[in-house]
Amino acid sequence: MRSCFVSSLICLCIFIGCETQSDRASEREILLETDKQFAALSAKAGAAEAFYQYLDSAAVQISGNSGPIHGRDNIFKIMKPTDTGYKLLWDPQFANVSRCGDMGWTWGAYMLTVAVDSSQIRGYYLNVWEKKSDGNWRVVADIGNVSSK
């Protein structure tokens, strides 16, 4: 009897702690819109500022041509000096959210245009997001590659 009560209590805690399907669908829309706002800020204010505003303080950035960069401040320090030398635009395509609604991911295509010669680098990105206690989504991992397509 006691083990049945404990099992029921654990199941109840899991059920209460996780969102329903309709909550997840709504949260997916919110997360995709958040990534679109992130992209819009990059187009308007520059990538460094956008990343500073949307990355978690402990975020990690991994791209195809460098090692991991740890921490929002370090990512900003690397991006800011060259921020006027390029324009980073991206198009969020999809978002998904964990069953409990506290983690999610988005992916899409990006285009980086170099100001000096207007050359373009294209690729895809995957961002891992965490929903913070204030209800805002923040990027905890920014991952990108370069594509020939």
Which key features would you list for this structure?
six-stranded mixed β-sheet, alpha+beta, Nuclear Transport Factor 2, Chain: A, 4 helices, globular, disordered N terminus, 149 residues
- The share of residues in helices is 25-40%
CATH topology type: Nuclear Transport Factor 2, Chain: A
Low-confidence blocks of residues:
1-16
SSE string, helix = H, strand = E?
Answer: HHHEEHEEEE
Classify the beta-strand content into a percent band. 35-45%
Neighbour order of strands in the largest sheet: 2-1-6-5-4-3
Oligomer: single chain
- Name given to the CATH architecture: Roll
**Main structural class:** alpha+beta
Word description of this protein:
This protein is α+β, with helices and mostly antiparallel strands and 149 residues long. The protein has a single domain (19-146), classed as Nuclear Transport Factor 2, Chain: A. The chain has four helices and six strands, in the order H-H-H-E-E-H-E-E-E-E. A six-stranded mixed sheet has the order 2-1-6-5-4-3, covered by helices on one side. Strand 3 and strand 4 (103-114) form a beta hairpin. The longest helix is centred in the first third of the chain and has 25 residues, at 21-45.
